[in-house]
Design brief:
50% helix; alpha+beta; 2 domains; 177 residues; flat
Length: 177
């Protein structure tokens, strides 16, 4: 199989391109020679030398081992965790404050569910990074609480996944009628 280089426009075999798991054909758009030439020029720039300075990297490694950094990092993570919990409570209250299926109200058990079972589109769409926690909650609020989300307890959420999109609570209600 062959591919055309996006830089030099030559048609080369796939072995002439680096592997790239993010591309559809699993190959980098530039051929190896064009990519290597571009990287050689990039390494000469001042900004590259600053970012990849070995002395800077060594300083960062040693700084991350200090008590000062570790205490700051621990405090920062606690602060972000608290913010995430507050945002989650805000979202849960907006969507009714309880599981839409079984009615559980304990916030520790509640999760945000995609009604149409299309959460994979968000996770594996154009986004390279999967959103979770604080960033996921901020996005829901920024998008003004999308209508395709609901609150379910963890059990109902997983049960829907394993039962073709229907929670067993709903199946029991349907069979009793």
């Amino acid at each position: 199989m062959t591919k055309q280089c996006s830089k030099c426009h030559q048609i080369k075999p796939l072995s002439g391109f680096y592997y790239d798991k993010h591309k559809l054909d699993k190959r980098h758009p530039e051929c190896k020679s064009c990519f290597n030439l571009r990287m050689k020029q990039t390494r000469k720039t001042t900004s590259y030398k600053i970012v990849f300075n070995p002395y800077q990297k060594e300083w960062q490694r040693t700084y991350r081992l200090t008590k000062k950094y570790k205490s700051w990092r621990k405090l920062a993570l606690q602060k972000q965790s608290l913010l995430a919990k507050e945002l989650k409570k805000q979202i849960i209250n907006y969507y009714g404050g309880k599981c839409a299926c079984c009615g559980i109200v304990d916030v520790r058990f509640l999760t945000i569910d995609h009604i149409n079972n299309d959460g994979y589109k968000l996770r594996f769409g154009n986004n390279r990074n999967r959103l979770s926690g604080y960033h996921w909650y901020k996005r829901i609020i920024k998008e003004n609480y999308p209508k395709d989300l609901q609150i379910l307890c963890f059990n109902c959420n997983i049960a829907r996944q394993h039962n073709g999109g229907t929670c067993p609570h709903k199946l029991c209600d349907y069979m009793e009628q």
